[in-house]
Recover the amino acids of this structure.
């Protein structure tokens, strides 16, 4: 499970790309900013999600969802919320429908079926799906799915099957909270450990993921919270992301708020920061149907401003100093852009088998 550089590009990321390729400068900016070092730190954080166990889990997540009766991936896809106003509104409505609340969905809907508890599922090459087995070891309050080496072309378990580890999914919800914990283990090492929970009321709901990922060398701690609330102007959807990479002192955070959600319109406020031993970069601003603007700051000093026209096309970039970005600065901006989009793709994969 890797934070993909080829993830569907959000509107804000397109702005960052334009910034990276446009003529903006930092020659007179803070001298302690090290774009090469920041690029290396972000890449190392991405690699924490790239263990064979995580990749196998990502490749078979939809098959696990079929066994557990989880919702379709598009229903709980954070990426879908960033594509257009209609998708953001649909995502917000879908999150509310998923969550336990009075007069609505029951927490029992999201529980692992009792007849599956304690079962270990293995891959069946004939059907291309998981089937129940008589293997032991599954948790009493959950299920176990065996993980396998992948065919590099089909990205499905290779023939002949080669077991590499397992994924345990257990119920951890209680009362009005739906919850599942996921552990991906191979060779005695836990490569993924996270919990997905959901709570809700008649007018609001929260869906959250929190845990860690490692490739055996690099470990990152992560969380993503999705909150949906009803306001006089309609639904408000908020995504709160946080990642920490203690060994390198790197933190990545953003809050994206989607307000006034209608099928044709959305008002988005973004505050996105990458910070660590090699400096910090912050992108903040708003946009909507009539356009908007962002400021980009490096180590607290203005780097550039970006003005967006109606429809999000042809952003106008105003440099703080008028000098072009260096190649290293362009590279780190590209990487920051890719991380923003790719992080949400990762959470799509993490949510798929459990919600």
């Amino acid at each position: 499970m890797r934070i993909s550089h080829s993830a569907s590009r959000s509107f804000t990321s397109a702005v960052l790309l334009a910034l990276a390729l446009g003529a903006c400068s930092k020659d007179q900016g803070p001298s302690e900013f090290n774009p090469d070092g920041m690029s290396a730190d972000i890449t190392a954080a991405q690699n924490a999600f790239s263990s064979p166990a995580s990749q196998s889990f990502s490749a078979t997540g939809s098959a696990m969802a079929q066994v557990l009766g989880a919702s379709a991936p598009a229903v709980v896809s954070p990426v879908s919320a960033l594509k257009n106003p209609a998708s953001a509104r649909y995502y917000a409505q879908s999150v509310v429908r998923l969550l336990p609340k009075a007069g609505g969905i029951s927490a029992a809907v999201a529980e692992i079926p009792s007849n599956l508890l304690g079962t270990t599922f293995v891959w069946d090459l004939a059907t291309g799906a998981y089937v129940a087995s008589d293997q032991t070891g599954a948790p009493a309050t959950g299920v176990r799915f065996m993980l396998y080496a992948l065919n590099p072309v089909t990205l499905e378990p290779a023939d002949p099957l080669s077991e590499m580890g397992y994924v345990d999914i257990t119920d951890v919800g209680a009362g009005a909270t739906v919850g599942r914990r996921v552990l991906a283990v191979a060779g005695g090492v836990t490569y993924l450990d996270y919990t997905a929970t959901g709570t809700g009321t008649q007018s609001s709901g929260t869906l959250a993921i929190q845990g860690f990922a490692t490739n055996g060398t690099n470990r990152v701690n992560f969380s993503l919270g999705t909150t949906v609330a009803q306001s006089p102007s309609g639904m408000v959807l908020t995504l709160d992301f946080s990642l920490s990479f203690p060994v390198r002192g790197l933190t990545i955070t953003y809050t994206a708020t989607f307000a006034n959600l209608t099928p044709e319109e959305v008002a988005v406020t973004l505050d996105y920061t990458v910070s660590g031993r090699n400096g910090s970069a912050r992108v903040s601003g708003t946009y909507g149907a009539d356009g908007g603007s962002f400021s980009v700051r490096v180590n607290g000093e203005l780097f550039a401003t970006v003005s967006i026209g109606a429809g999000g096309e042809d952003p106008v970039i105003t440099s703080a100093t008028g000098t072009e970005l260096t190649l290293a600065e362009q590279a780190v901006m590209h990487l920051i852009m890719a991380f923003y989009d790719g992080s949400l793709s990762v959470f799509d994969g993490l949510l798929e088998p459990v919600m």
Q: What stands out?
A: The CA atoms of residues 306 and 317 lie 5 Å apart. The longest strand covers residues 219-231. Residues 2-9, 20-31, 71-76, 100-109 have pLDDT under 50 and may be disordered. Helices lie at 11-21, 35-47, 52-68, 78-81, 85-98, 327-351.
